[in-house]
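Let's practice the habit of predicting before peeking. Look at the sequence and jot down your guess about where helices and strands might fall. Then scroll down.
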Amino acid sequence: MKGFKIRHKASLLCALLLAAIMIAGCNSAPQSKSEPSGITVDNANNEQVTIANEPQRIVVLPIWEAEMVIELIDTDRIVGLSPFIDSPATSVCAEKAADVKERVSSNQAEKILALQPDLVLLDTFNDFDGSLTATLKEAGITVLTLESPMSFEQISDRIDIISKAVFAPEKGQQIIEEMQQRLDSIKQRVKNVEQRVKVMYYEDYYSEDGTSDGMLCAYGPGSTFDEIASAAGAVNVCTAQNYSAVSKETVLNDWKPELLIVPSIKYDENFNAVDDQGKTIISAIKNDKILISLPAVKNDRLYALPDKYRGSTSHYMAYAVEELARVCYPDLFE
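Done guessing? Here is the structure:
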């Protein structure tokens, strides 16, 4: 009997020790942390914006952002776009954008709110003072404001951010890779060109009687055209800072472009863009008393780069590079 009691006490002691070890082990094990829901991205001011769930009612105002979003996700998740995207002359996505019913502008906060969006995408241009963002945030709406890209590096960055914001990061990387492949292919074709074509983008508006308003702005360093020309293996002869006003005499006497690139569009009486393939401005330039002496004009080297590519600051800008490279070096693309 005495032996039984000893064995019983020993068994009980072992059980208690085992329990103590298990409890200690549980307490010393790292506690699992619940994964945060949603994603967090940085806006134009390097402020973090958290998007808790996959957005299903998205409003996009900038055309460049809309072109990205339309390719990233189904249009049934987009409830509002800018009316500027509806022109096929200035946006590749005009046809797809037609699937989205509502059109809104940055001065229509109430209309945007009525769409009950769960994400609104803006840029620093259409909300320069932050007032729209403040109004939307007060209503509990998530707003992501980015700066318009000016280079392909920045375009890749914006696609990466936006694709995460709409919960389509894999598609975003695919678009970035396809854009880079297009640029790499062009770079490979023009890499051995010794005599680079001297180009310039010229923008002007002529009245019906052929009177010129003068060159409105230069597309020099820092402009998207400078980025396009560089990627196409051409030399942008314009040295004025981005969008600076310049004279025709400067173009004629200092820059002397061999190839003059012009807009492919004109504007009607309602200021709607009309794609006339540059015929109006090319005809006016050829009859301009100053520009007629320009090398590009004398050699009939004027080309209207499609504005839906040239004016885009989305991944479609890579198509402008290919168009320009083909015009500069046609033999390399036969």
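How did you do? Residues 39-167 form a domain with the Rossmann fold fold (CATH 3.40.50.1980).
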